């Protein structure tokens, strides 16, 4: 076992299920101490933690809504109190909010989406930054739909938030790069998560699979392996980048 992240402390927001869970487990497998964060599903978060503990590392579970500044502060404080530092910050928690085109998006929809998907990650970084040693890693999550010329109007609100994340990544990479803290964004394509399947018919899913270059959609574990790379020592010269992890469906 390589243990590429031995001695490191990693926070993974939204890690009770889906891509976040896969990232937390991959970090634990590579030797990191992991903070599992969840908003509402404690049972799922505990399940992630239980699985991560099988790799022999240390794991804590911290409840918190990333759109809450108080909860963000609590998340960082719990991590530092337990582990003393934060080496890796993986900001996976997010709101998909499909079906929100210009006509149907209300001010309340807008505020909620940007609070979770943009404000939350930004202020989590701000709260955590002073506890991240030189050479630390920050990983944002976006969507390959950003680069899809066939994007549907119903994704306007969601993609607007992810566009903000990608721009934030580019600028923060310059800001924090002076301490060799890298800031990168993973931009997955269609991936087997509960959120991806929600609201999609079996016919639509088969159509997406059929038009994909590989004939299938991705697995959370495949995205997690990219997160391990970005969190590890091999990625020290990768900074400010948007990595489209989609099997070639959107290039």
UniProtKB/TrEMBL annotation:
Superkingdom as given in the UniProt entry: Eukaryota
Keyword set includes Secreted: no
Gene Ontology molecular-function annotations: oxidoreductase activity, acting on CH-OH group of donors
Protein keywords: Oxidoreductase
Keyword Membrane set for record: no
Entries under Gene3D superfamilies matching the protein: NAD(P)-binding Rossmann-like Domain
Family: Belongs to the short-chain dehydrogenases/reductases (SDR) family.
Protein's recorded name: Putative short chain dehydrogenase/ reductase
């Amino acid at each position: 076992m390589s243990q590429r992240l031995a001695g490191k402390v990693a926070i993974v927001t939204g890690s009770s299920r889906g891509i976040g869970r896969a990232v937390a487990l991959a970090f634990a497998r590579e030797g990191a101490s992991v903070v599992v964060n969840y908003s509402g599903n404690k049972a799922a978060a505990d399940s992630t933690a239980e699985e991560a503990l099988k790799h022999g590392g240390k794991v804590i579970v911290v409840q918190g809504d990333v759109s809450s500044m108080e909860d963000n502060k609590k998340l960082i404080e719990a991590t530092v109190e337990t582990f003393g530092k934060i080496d890796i910050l993986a900001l996976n928690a997010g709101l998909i909010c499909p079906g929100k085109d210009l006509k149907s998006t209300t001010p309340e929809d807008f505020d909620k989406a940007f609070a979770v998907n943009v404000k939350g990650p930004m202020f989590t970084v701000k709260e955590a930054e002073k506890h991240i040693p030189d050479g630390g890693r920050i990983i944002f999550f976006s969507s390959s739909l950003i680069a899809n010329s066939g994007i549907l109007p119903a994704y306007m609100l969601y993609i607007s938030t992810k566009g903000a994340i990608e721009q934030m990544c580019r600028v923060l990479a310059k800001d924090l790069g002076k301490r060799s803290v890298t800031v990168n964004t993973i931009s997955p394509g269609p991936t087997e998560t509960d959120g991806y399947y929600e609201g999609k018919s079996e016919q639509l899913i088969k159509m997406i699979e059929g038009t994909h270059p590989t004939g299938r959609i991705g697995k959370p574990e495949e995205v997690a392996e990219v997160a391990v790379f970005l969190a590890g020592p091999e990625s020290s010269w990768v900074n400010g980048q948007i990595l489209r992890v989609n099997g070639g469906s959107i290039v």
